[in-house]
Design a protein that fits this description.
Radius of gyration: 23 Å
Strand order of the largest sheet: 2-4-5-6-7-8-9-10
Helix content: 40-55%
Largest sheet: 8 strands, parallel
Shape: globular
Structural class: alpha/beta
Number of domains: 2
Oligomer: single chain
CATH superfamily of the largest domain: Metal-dependent hydrolases
């Protein structure tokens, strides 16, 4: 594929005209009320369903190019990413302008008007993403003598992108239904989809998620827990993203209110950035930002990402030159970096477990998504064994349950190490895990069923409320899972199929129906959403201030008290 300069400029001119006619000029036009309880994506009578591990960011919220090229290492996209401009993704400030003119709620909403405007935003941003990708591919294509086979194939795919988002979506789901593409081709398709997703408004991503995952008959996703990430210091050279974390928090807080409590978030805490702040190299304290987000902005907990360069605790035991890496800013290449990291993490943990706070933590525990192989070892279960021993009473979700390929794991006992930390003692009574990015659910469903059965049985006999049946939770890792490139829209449906099988097995230690625990009740316990919980009290206050009256999830959680599903923690 070769896009001529004339063709590209012609397409760019059309896009610019469209933007001036229907983009910025319409940002201040009111959008009719969001119908958060639209029966197509919401059902008060269906079982409680919570996705405890998702993302709804865009390309101004993270270093998307660096993440794909330096972390995911997808063949054929690296040189194109170097030329890609993400500036046309909506910034947090731009989205706040849009959200200021949307009213949210549950009654008297003009669904057709809202859908029309949402679809217009989606189409505008698809066109911007498509134009940016094709412009980048054209630049690389002009250097054809330097282009390898994988890059050439990617250029052809980008050149063939459909003219409209509706056509792209139709072809995407037709492609995914086949699921017969080679792994490398799947990765390229997923990378392109991920990039296009990163050009969208965040609120559009939220509704795209709901339309993909909440149109089944049995379950609707009542609550999405979206995790913000902070990679500014590990892979951003110490520079903030286009939309800084405080601005992202304001946007997601607004979306939480506008969707009637269908989305709540975790604020990211990067101890490397906290150390940089304390050394005078950064403008705000991440711990202060996290605490305010949880106390004032409807955020639920704290996100940690150890493979980006830190142990959850015990960094002082690492070699003094451990952080002497080219991509880590010189400010943090110090002999006392490990000690300072532990001090920053200790302050966070003490704040989280303070009476009245009891804030949940979610940590990436899979040996993946780090800029260096040595950093992947920072997710080892032993790191968390020492952390919870040093800070008993922490409320932690082991994201990805220690791995993202439970069936074909190089270390099949790794998830059990995390499961064995879950016990009834002070150190283990509030420890949980999630199923986010379990790629086996997309291609090895039968094998994953038996893997989960074995894990459940191994912890079922004598652990009671600490058995894995009471601690494992449903999670997707959406938008990240789109990188996989397969039929990820079947993620919920496939897990429902798995648990229809497991529900028939009485030997797995569940207190109540296993599927109800996995999809909802365990998350309600972990997130502290039940009446009397600290998180519940904060969210109720947030709803009262924001004018949110009756989130569907809250009514369903309150009904759990009358069901034979034990409250743990």
């Amino acid at each position: 594929m070769r896009v001529s300069r004339r063709d590209f400029l012609s397409k760019s001119a059309i896009l610019a005209a469209s933007a001036s006619a229907s983009g910025c000029a319409n940002l201040v036009q009111p959008i009719s009320q969001i119908c958060a309880n639209d029966p197509a994506i919401s059902d008060p009578s269906s079982p409680l369903t919570i996705d405890v591990h998702a993302h709804v960011f865009n390309g101004t919220d993270l270093q998307a190019k660096a993440f794909l090229s330096r972390i995911m290492h997808i063949p054929g996209v690296g040189s194109i990413l170097q030329e890609l401009a993400l500036e046309d993704a909506p910034t947090a400030m731009r989205e706040l302008e849009v959200l200021a003119n949307i009213s949210g709620g549950e009654g008297n909403c003009d669904q057709s008007s809202f859908i029309t405007r949402k679809n217009q935003h989606r189409e505008e941003q698809y066109q911007r993403g498509r134009a940016a990708l094709q412009a980048a591919a054209s630049k690389v294509d002009r250097r054809g003598f330097l282009t390898d086979a994988a890059t050439s194939a990617t250029i052809r795919k980008i050149g063939a992108l459909e003219e409209t988002h509706a056509a792209y979506r139709k072809r995407k789901f037709q492609r995914n239904a086949r699921q017969r593409l080679a792994p490398a081709e799947l990765s390229v398709d997923g990378a392109i989809d991920f990039i296009l997703r990163n050009f969208q408004y965040r609120y559009v991503n939220v509704f795209d998620y709901l339309e993909e995952y909440s149109r089944g008959r049995a379950r609707k996703v009542d609550l999405i827990i979206a995790h913000l990430v902070d990679f500014d210091w590990p892979i951003g050279d110490g520079c903030e993203t286009i939309s800084p974390i405080p601005d992202q928090i304001q946007v997601m807080s607004k979306i939480s209110a506008l969707t009637n409590g269908r989305v709540h978030c975790y604020a990211p805490f990067d101890p490397l950035k906290q150390v940089a702040y304390e050394l005078g190299g950064f403008r705000y304290s991440p711990l202060d930002i996290v605490s305010r987000a949880i106390q004032e902005n409807g955020f639920i907990g704290v996100k940690l990402y150890p493979p980006m360069g830190f142990r959850p605790y015990g960094n002082a035991d690492l070699a003094s030159n451990f952080w002497d890496r080219d991509w880590i800013p010189p400010l943090l290449r110090r002999a006392d970096t490990g000690k300072r990291l532990d001090q920053a993490l200790s302050a966070l943990y003490e704040w989280c477990r303070r009476p009245g706070n009891d804030a949940p933590i979610m940590a990436h525990t899979a040996p993946s998504n780090g800029p260096d192989k040595a950093f992947l070892r920072l997710t080892d279960p032993s790191c968390w064994e020492s952390t919870v021993a040093a800070f008993p009473g922490l409320r932690v979700n082991f994201g990805h349950f220690g791995d993202t390929q439970e069936v074909e794991s190089d270390n099949p006992r790794r998830p059990l190490r995390f499961a064995h930390m879950m016990n009834q003692s002070e150190t283990g009574r509030l420890l949980y895990a999630d199923s986010a990015f379990f790629v086996d659910i997309l291609g090895n469903q039968a094998q994953l069923t038996e893997k989960l059965r074995a894990l459940y049985r191994e912890t079922a006999s004598d652990k009671g409320g600490a058995a894995l049946a009471q601690r494992l939770m449903y999670g997707t890792d959406w938008e990240m899972i789109t990188i996989e490139g397969r039929a990820t829209n079947s993620y919920l449906q496939n897990f429902e199929s798995v648990f229809r099988v497991l529900d028939r097995d009485a030997s797995l230690g569940s207190q109540g129906k296993l599927s109800d625990r996995f999809f909802g009740a365990n998350a309600a316990n972990y997130l502290d959403l039940r009446l009397g919980g600290s998180t519940r009290a904060r969210l109720d206050a947030f709803y009262a201030a924001a004018g949110v009256s009756s989130p569907v999830w809250r009514a369903k959680v309150d009904k759990l008290e009358a069901r034979p599903i034990a409250r743990i923690g």
